[in-house]
Design goal:
- The protein has 111 residues and is mostly helical.
- The protein has one domain.
- Helix content is 61%, strand content 4%.
- A hairpin with a 2-residue loop joins strand 1 and strand 2.
- The radius of gyration is 16 Å and the shape is globular.
Length: 111
């Protein structure tokens, strides 16, 4: 049986699904459902676009054309935005969950 290699697009989609499941179902921090996360995310996105644009524009990071969708935003493939979202959401979810694990309570959040 031949298994097709995972593309960057598939890995990015899996990362987003995993981060949302971690946030909503496993850690139950539910940041992705709150207003504060979505108000802060554009700030993060701006810096992500800046850094991705510099790295991909200067050729520091290269992508195989057959592994990505081909849609680019500030020189970087859109899959990078999905990976960035997943990494930020997972990091913030863990950040909110860790103190509550010690205290035995749920985190306060703004919806």
């Amino acid at each position: 049986m031949v298994v097709a290699p995972m593309t960057y697009t598939m890995a990015a989609a899996a990362g987003v699904v995993a981060a949302v499941l971690l946030d909503v179902l496993i850690l139950r921090t539910r940041l992705v459902l709150g207003r504060v996360f979505w108000c802060a995310y554009p700030i993060i996105l701006g810096f992500q676009l800046l850094s991705n644009g510099i790295l991909t524009g200067r050729g520091v990071v290269l992508y195989a054309p057959d592994a990505i969708l081909g849609v680019r935003l500030v020189n970087a493939p859109v899959e990078d935005l999905a990976f960035g979202f997943a990494l930020i959401l997972a990091s913030l979810s863990l950040w909110m969950w860790l103190p509550t694990r010690r205290a035995g309570s749920r985190p306060e959040r703004d919806r």
